[in-house]
Design a protein that fits this description.
Layout: E1 2-10, E2 13-21, H1 31-131, H2 135-143, H3 147-152, H4 154-158, H5 162-260, E3 282-285, E4 288-290, E5 293-295, E6 298-301, E7 307-309, E8 314-322, E9 326-332, E10 337-344, E11 346-347, E12 354-355, E13 360-363, E14 374-381, E15 384-386
Helix pairs in contact: 1-5
């Protein structure tokens, strides 16, 4: 250890400054430099916490979208099942239509064959009639424009024998059946084409929609996985920064202890105000604006389990978990003045309990929104935060 003495004359007076410093290695940071590094590291930690929150929200949105897409896929699967049933029915209809079409085509072939046979028989009968010398019948035939017109002329039918008339009726019926069958075939072919087109359209629709949904779902899952990977990376970075921060705070505590002198075990640090210091440790953050908002107290770093003491006597108004503050205790010292203690690892008092100045009310911890073991200490007047340094 060494002692440095500086003497300066000011208006006949001598100013003597004593400083007790350990022999630090060359290049070691000073307390001021460490404080700047700590502030920067704390800012980085807070930035990554904010980024983690945003990424978590993004992941939740993507997860919600994936769930929506999965529901849509489920609906499509149900629709596909319905379409498959419909397709099955359409195939049955198509099969029946095709069978009916084949039957009608076969029937038409039979009718056409029968028509040709009857037509040949009728021709033979007409030749016989002509050979028998029935010239009047021949003239009727010659005057007709065609065989169909001939069949429609009552004069011709009236001159034929009953057997010939039966042949004529058979020919006419066959002709009518053939015409009707051809029309039915046309109708069945159009129906077959329509059913086939419907089957193809429905199958293509299901395939197209499923493909689009699957592609969208794959894109969303990929985006969500990317966010998760980034979140994991940010968490690792934040953890590394918190470890660096804890190391710097510990180093700052060693420097502070060397500068201020170590306190005896169990001793309570005295201030110049009416309050005693709530905990022996390293001052790490002042009261005031920090990271764009009011830091409503001061921070004192110390190992977990370090005793926290009431800065003055009073009644415990709050003792329990509070969002952000973790384990939080507030002591009412007067009708307007109170002191509060945050981030405790455990609380040693209860609401309504009367405590005395210096009494242990809890232990230092890292609960709530905290970057490392420390006590966040507040002084409030009528509930409004004040700079604790004016009371310590």
């Amino acid at each position: 250890m060494r002692r440095l003495t500086l003497t300066a004359g000011v208006a006949g007076s001598c100013l003597v400054i004593w400083a007790t410093l350990p022999l630090l290695s060359t290049g070691a940071p000073t307390a001021a430099e460490l404080e700047k590094k700590i502030d920067k590291t704390q800012a980085k930690v807070q930035y990554r916490k904010g980024k983690e929150k945003v990424l978590t929200q993004d992941i939740a949105k993507y997860s919600s979208r994936v769930a929506t897409l999965e529901k849509r896929v489920g609906a499509l699967s149900a629709r596909q099942s319905t379409l498959e049933e419909d397709l099955s029915e359409k195939r049955e209809v198509l099969g029946a239509t095709q069978a009916e079409l084949r039957a009608e085509r076969a029937r038409l072939i039979r009718l056409q064959k029968r028509f040709r046979e009857v037509e040949a028989t009728l021709e033979d009968r007409l030749v016989e009639q002509y050979k028998e010398g029935r010239t009047d019948l021949a003239s009727v035939i010659v005057e007709a424009d065609g065989f169909q017109q001939l069949l429609e002329r009552g004069e011709f039918l009236g001159r034929l024998a009953q057997k010939d008339q039966q042949v004529i009726k058979i020919v006419a019926t066959a002709k009518t059946d053939a015409t009707r069958t051809e029309k039915r075939l046309d109708s069945l072919e159009r129906r077959q084409q329509k059913v086939t087109a419907e089957v193809a359209a429905r199958r293509n629709e299901v395939a197209r929609v499923r493909s689009n949904v699957a592609a969208t779902e794959a894109t969303v899952r990929e985006a969500r996985n990317g966010k998760r990977a980034l979140l994991s990376q940010v968490k690792v970075q934040r953890k590394d920064l918190e470890e660096d921060l804890a190391a710097m705070q510990a180093q700052q505590a060693r420097i502070s202890g060397a500068l201020n002198g170590a306190l005896p075990a169990g001793a309570i640090k005295k201030g110049t105000g009416s309050f005693i210091y709530p905990m022996n440790g390293t001052f790490t953050s002042p009261f005031g604006q920090r990271w764009g908002r009011l830091h409503a107290g001061i921070d004192i770093a110390a190992p977990i389990g370090t005793p926290i003491r009431a800065v003055d006597g009073g009644r415990v108004a709050i003792a329990g978990g509070v969002s952000g503050y973790g384990n939080y205790t507030c002591i009412q010292h007067s009708s307007s003045l109170s002191s509060c203690y945050a981030h405790q690892s455990s609380i040693a008092v209860k609401v309504g309990q009367t405590v005395t100045k210096g009494q242990v009310i809890g232990l230092c911890g890292n609960t709530g929104n905290s970057t490392g073991p420390h006590l966040h200490f507040e002084v409030r007047v009528n509930g409004n935060p004040q700079d604790p340094m004016g009371y310590l």
